[in-house]
């Protein structure tokens, strides 16, 4: 019996037990009339559907047949809506993780896909976007100093299923792992190394430690890069550390300048040394050959001396005197002459020769070139002496 069926009285005045207070069912126009009966609502709906889908001539089927047909149409429409509602799209950079009745089923690729509505649940995950998180704070170094360190980690999702279901929150777990790895590396480093030259090593060590932690937790993430942002000493000693860092930078700058100067000067000095060495070798060979030539000359002169010692001795004497007087500004006078004075402007000739030699010395760029000029001059004097000696020998 329904709760508002007539006859279910509570004993007073034959009134129905209506919770809306509409105990007088005959009061159809009253404002306190309760909601209609559910059976009556369904009956009216069946009659309306039966009238629409009934037979020709205005006579429809019975109320039961029309209701069954209407329910079938509604079911077909509902199924069509359910089928079309199951289509969904996964973006190019995403992968869809499918749960069937709450249990992991598969990972779908980008494109148009279909799932049974209310049975499968799809969660798209972007696997190409580069995500970033930042870790910073006061940390204790190996030499018991406190330093403020900040590091930025860039990562992406490698396995959507592990990213969603291996841990409660993969991003938060990675943040905690980054903080732990950074503190471990800073705890094994000295403060001077952290602030100056050891930053690259700290970055590499932090990335390796973080990869080990991620592999252990199986987060489904891949570390793309780790950037060591900044490292600052406490504010109380910041000025002193800034001065120390500036001094180290000046030291490195001076070292680089010295290396640059060395790289510039050393090749020039090496080339100059090689040139001087070659010139010295050439000078040595030339002097040696000249000495050998003089020895050969004296060896040829020996037979002549043995054949005519007096004549050869006089010739050598005259050659020596000619060589001595060549560099002097003297006037030679023949005492046996008949009063005629023979003037030889040897000083002017010597001055002109000296000027010529000075010009040649100015054009020469090496001491060995000057020596070569002097040797050439000596050879010239020797040739002239030889010619004059030959002339004297002819006279004798």
Automatic annotation (TrEMBL):
<dbReference type="GO" id="GO:0016020">
    <property type="term" value="C:membrane"/>
</dbReference>
<feature type="region of interest" description="Disordered">
    <location>
        <begin position="353"/>
        <end position="396"/>
    </location>
</feature>
<feature type="compositionally biased region" description="Low complexity">
    <location>
        <begin position="1"/>
        <end position="12"/>
    </location>
</feature>
<protein>
    <recommendedName>
        <fullName>Protein HflK</fullName>
    </recommendedName>
</protein>
<feature type="domain" description="Band 7">
    <location>
        <begin position="85"/>
        <end position="245"/>
    </location>
</feature>
<keyword id="KW-0645">Protease</keyword>
<dbReference type="Pfam" id="PF01145">
    <property type="entry name" value="Band_7"/>
</dbReference>
<feature type="compositionally biased region" description="Polar residues">
    <location>
        <begin position="378"/>
        <end position="396"/>
    </location>
</feature>
<dbReference type="GO" id="GO:0006508">
    <property type="term" value="P:proteolysis"/>
</dbReference>
<keyword id="KW-0812">Transmembrane</keyword>
<comment type="subunit">
    <text>HflC and HflK may interact to form a multimeric complex.</text>
</comment>
<dbReference type="InterPro" id="IPR050710">
    <property type="entry name" value="Band7/mec-2_domain"/>
</dbReference>
<feature type="compositionally biased region" description="Polar residues">
    <location>
        <begin position="353"/>
        <end position="368"/>
    </location>
</feature>
<feature type="transmembrane region" description="Helical">
    <location>
        <begin position="68"/>
        <end position="90"/>
    </location>
</feature>
<comment type="function">
    <text>HflC and HflK could encode or regulate a protease.</text>
</comment>
<feature type="region of interest" description="Disordered">
    <location>
        <begin position="1"/>
        <end position="41"/>
    </location>
</feature>
<comment type="similarity">
    <text>Belongs to the band 7/mec-2 family. HflK subfamily.</text>
</comment>
<dbReference type="InterPro" id="IPR001107">
    <property type="entry name" value="Band_7"/>
</dbReference>
<dbReference type="InterPro" id="IPR001972">
    <property type="entry name" value="Stomatin_HflK_fam"/>
</dbReference>
<keyword id="KW-1133">Transmembrane helix</keyword>
<dbReference type="InterPro" id="IPR020980">
    <property type="entry name" value="Membrane_HflK_N"/>
</dbReference>
<keyword id="KW-0378">Hydrolase</keyword>
<dbReference type="Pfam" id="PF12221">
    <property type="entry name" value="HflK_N"/>
</dbReference>
<dbReference type="GO" id="GO:0008233">
    <property type="term" value="F:peptidase activity"/>
</dbReference>
<keyword id="KW-0472">Membrane</keyword>
<dbReference type="InterPro" id="IPR010201">
    <property type="entry name" value="HflK"/>
</dbReference>
<dbReference type="InterPro" id="IPR036013">
    <property type="entry name" value="Band_7/SPFH_dom_sf"/>
</dbReference>
């Amino acid at each position: 019996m329904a709760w508002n069926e007539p006859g279910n009285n509570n004993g007073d005045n034959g009134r129905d037990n209506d919770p809306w207070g509409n105990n007088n069912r005959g009061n159809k126009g009253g404002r306190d009339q309760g909601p209609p009966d559910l059976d009556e609502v369904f009956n009216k709906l069946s009659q309306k559907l039966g009238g629409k889908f009934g037979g020709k001539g205005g006579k429809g089927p019975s109320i039961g047949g029309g209701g069954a047909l209407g329910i079938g149409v509604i079911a077909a429409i509902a199924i069509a809506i359910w089928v079309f509602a199951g289509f969904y799209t996964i973006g190019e950079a995403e992968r869809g993780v499918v749960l069937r009745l709450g249990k992991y089923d598969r990972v779908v690729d980008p494109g148009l896909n279909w799932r049974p509505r209310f049975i499968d649940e799809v969660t798209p995950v972007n696997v190409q976007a580069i995500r970033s998180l930042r870790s910073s704070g006061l940390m204790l170094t190996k030499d018991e100093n406190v330093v403020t360190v900040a590091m930025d980690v860039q990562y992406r999702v490698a396995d959507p299923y592990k990213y969603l279901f291996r841990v409660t929150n993969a991003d938060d777990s990675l943040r905690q792992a980054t903080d732990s790895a950074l503190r471990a590396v800073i705890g094994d480093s000295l403060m001077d190394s952290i602030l100056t030259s050891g930053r690259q090593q700290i970055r590499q060590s932090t990335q390796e430690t973080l990869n080990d932690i991620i592999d252990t937790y199986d987060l489904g993430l891949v570390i793309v890069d780790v950037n060591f942002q900044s490292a600052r000493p406490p504010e109380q000693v910041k000025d002193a550390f800034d001065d120390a860092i500036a001094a180290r930078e000046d030291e490195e700058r001076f070292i680089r300048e010295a290396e640059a100067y060395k790289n510039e000067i050393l090749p020039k000095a090496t080339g100059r040394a090689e040139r001087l060495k070659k010139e010295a070798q050439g000078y040595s060979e030339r002097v040696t050959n000249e000495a050998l030539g003089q020895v050969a000359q004296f060896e040829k002169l020996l037979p002549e001396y043995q054949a005519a010692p007096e004549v050869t001795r006089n010739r050598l004497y005259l050659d020596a005197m000619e060589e001595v007087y060549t560099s002097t500004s003297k006037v030679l006078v023949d005492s046996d002459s008949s009063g005629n004075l023979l003037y030889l402007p040897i000083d002017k000739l010597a001055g002109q020769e000296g000027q010529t030699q000075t010009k040649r010395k100015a054009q020469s760029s090496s001491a060995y070139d000057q020596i070569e000029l002097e040797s050439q001059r000596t050879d010239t004097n020797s040739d002239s002496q030889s010619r004059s000696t030959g002339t004297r020998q002819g006279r004798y």
